[in-house]
Input
Amino acid sequence: MSDYLIELGRKEYVEFSQRIAGSFPKLTFGAFANRDLCNELAYAGKDLFGDVIESMQALLIDPSVGLSAVDIARDDASTDHQNLVIGAAAATAICASLFESRTNPIGQTPFWLHMTPPGVAKASGIDIQYNNTTDVVLHTDWYCSNDEAYVPNRIGLFNLLVSYKRPGNFHWLPFSKWSEFTEFSKNDLLRSDISFELLPQLLVTKDGNSRFGEKYLRTGPIVKDGEAGPIYFLNGRIDRNGRNSTQTVAEFDRLRSALKESYGRFEIAQAERRLIVLNNLTCFHGRDRMEDPIPGAPVQRAFLRFMDDTRVSFGKTQVFHD
Ligand SMILES: [Fe+2]
Output
């Protein structure tokens, strides 16, 4: 087992499950909108998963690592559905101890639930448009709130279900391990306004259809100074339609190739019931496309995404229309 992967044992998991069942006997995904439940989860997490949380926190604040992962046990005496919901509760409890999660405005849950029914990725064209290469595209995560673009300090990703034969890896590059970090971080062109087309999210509706979310155009810097050093907003495609100077486009391409060829990258397998928490202010990350879906599975992948409410603003963003 690697140094950054921790295990949450069955004993602690069952104890946690029983404690939650005492106050909330019939837990569903909708129940996570309830503040009392989330507070109860946070308390139970601190009480029962103290060692796990302490180890994760140490890795997250270590600039040479910046990521920690935990495999959440299953209880074979419980049903599949109970294991799904209690697994999500355990991930929520751990994230609540590591950062304050932003509330999803749709549904008021402390996470975003993403699901991929069979065939959706292909049918939507997202594979062809954005993921037609085997290269891992390193980036930082962002979100938009009231037209402002933010980079959250931390993010959490919990794979509830993975129905692929080759789920591939999650990759990350701590800034401290990237030999050209200082050079690029001082670059005036990357600190000036650059126009970007941010990648739209693939949204899946209840009937299993999919569509793209809104596209955003962002004009702002890629790098700026944070409290503890330079921070990156690196996401989407540089606008090649004349809004950027040729020098800016060339500099961006140089940054992309430098990252592609960089050493110092870590990787961890994408696996079911694995929670990955990442320091988004000290690392880039990217992941392999999952390959070979298991035939007959009702869901190809389901995961929860947690985003830190503590964040760094990178300025205004507007909806992209042309
Ligand atoms: Fe990401």
In short: Residues 139, 141, 285 surround fe (ii) ion (CB under 6 Å). The chain has eight helices and 21 strands. Confidence is low (pLDDT under 50) at residues 124-132.
